[in-house]
Every structure is written in C-alpha cells, then in structure tokens.
Amino acid sequence: MIFQTAEAPNENIVIPKTIEYEGYTKETTINVDAFLYSDKDVEELGLNGQLKNYFCNDCGSKNIESLNFISHSTSTLQLRYIFEHVLNGIEINDKIVLDIGSRLGSVLYVGYLFSSTKKLIGIELNQFFADLQKEIIQEYNMSDRVEIIQDDIMNHPQLLQTADIIIMNNVFQFFHSLPIQQAIWSFIRVNTKPSTLIITFPDLKEQLGDANCTNIDFDKWVKEIKIKIPYKKSQLTEDEWKDLKLIHLYKVL
C-alpha cells in the first residue's frame, strides 16, 4: 500500500482556531483521506514506516509527540450509514442530492451505486479534485445521474433552491477565513427551501458557532431530526463510533 496525501497540488488548508484543533499546525498535521484509507490502513502504514506517526519537539531528542491526522472526505462506514440508515425510509427516487465540497466524489459514487436517487450533483471549488471526479464519472459511466460543477457554491443559488438533500462534510472550516465562512453560511441559509434535508458533520449548530454566524437564527432555519446509530457500541472501534456520532440530519423549516 502506498500512501497518498489528501491535499491537492497547491491547496491551501487552514487549521481552524478552535478548541477542538488547539495545538494543530501545518507542520504537525497530516491530511489523510478517510475514503481511501481506513483507520486500520493508517495503522498499517505507520507500522510499515510509510506514514510517520510522531514529530520531534526539538530535533534529535526523544521529546516526541503524536502527529495529528485529519480527513476532509467521508469514510466508507459513514457513507454506508448515511445511505442505509440516515436516509432509510425517505422516498428518494425523485430527489436531487447536492454534495457541497464533493472533493474526491465519494458521496456521489456511493449514492449512484447504492441509492435510486434521481440526480447527484457535486460542486467543488478545487480544480484538481473537480477534474479527478469528472474522469472517474466518465470512466465508470455514471454521467447519466451524476454531475460535477467546478465553482464556488455562492455562484449557484439555484443548486440550493432545487436540492432536496444537501450533504456537507465540514466543508468550509479548513478552506476559508471566518468572514468568508459567514458569507457562505448566510447564502445557504437564504437559498435553502422548506423541507430540504441537510446532512452535516459535525453538528450544524456547532459549525455556525465556530464561524461566529450571529446573524443566523438556527431554530428558525432548521429542526434537527434525531437519528440512532444502528450498531452496538461494542461492534465498532472508538474512532468509528465517534465518526458516526458526528453525522446530523436537519429539515429546513
């Protein structure tokens, strides 16, 4: 197995200045794609010496600390959970799914293969990842139901206005400054129509708080739909359980 970083060429990832990521820096953080590498894969890469797990506080000494690992993609377990359980019981045959910040396109591929949804649209700001998704869709003949748009979501209000299900995996926090995050969230708030389902991870209210979106009244915008993890805690690793607990479902009022 060969490790491939989750960063695109020349991509600028910003470490959020929040309590959750306190102590994280560009030098001590590795971006690992959860869709491509499971926790077991990361452990194996570390044991084989292909992926370093520690950094030295002062070069040459034994004063070392564990590196921080971050993923910007949805894991296979999370994808299975979303399409088999979170959306279970919802009639989606005639629905349009919008994945904001589609990156590698994992949500779109799984949605195409394991759901009967009418259309899956991914919008991705990064040209490298958008082109990669288009190549995969072309190669595996998914263009009848999957569409990729390379652009900023703020240039496409109609996507939000027509989407029935919107999926966002911590899509803005690592890629935009706070003022831009606030502008994007306000744009999404204004353009989402009633009854639209929004799936976010982590918690939408938490993301709005981290972005200091004081102008958005959460309780007047959406109502959370409680979802139950269909596994016993003992069936999953601690990290897997935490990954599923991150996923939240909302309905626009």
Helix-residue proportion:
25-40%
Give the C-level CATH assignment of the largest domain. Alpha Beta
Return residue spans where pLDDT drops below 50 for at least 5 consecutive residues: none
User: What integer is the average pLDDT?
Assistant: 84
Task: Outline the fold blueprint.
Layout: E1 29-31, H1 39-47, E2 54-56, E3 64-66, E4 68-70, H2 76-86, E5 96-100, H3 106-114, E6 119-124, H4 127-139, E7 146-150, H5 157-162, E8 165-169, H6 178-191, E9 197-201, H7 204-210, H8 218-221, E10 222-225, H9 238-245, E11 248-252
Helix pairs in contact: 2-3
Descriptive overview:
There is one protein chain. With 253 residues, the chain is α/β, with parallel strands linked by helices. It has 2 domains: 19-70, no CATH class; 76-252, Rossmann fold (3-Layer(aba) Sandwich). It is built from 9 helices and 11 strands. The strands form 3 sheets. The protein has a 7-stranded mixed sheet. A two-stranded parallel ribbon has the order 1-4. α2 packs across α3 (106-114). Pfam families: Methyltransf_31.
Question: What are the defining features of this structure?
Answer:
single chain; 253 residues; alpha/beta; Rossmann fold; 2 domains; two-stranded parallel ribbon; 9 helices; 32% helix; globular; arsenite methyltransferase activity; EC 2.1.1.137
Give a short overview:
This protein has 253 residues and is α/β, with parallel strands linked by helices. The protein has nine helices and eleven strands. The protein folds into two domains: 19-70, no CATH class; 76-252, Vaccinia Virus protein VP39 (Rossmann fold).
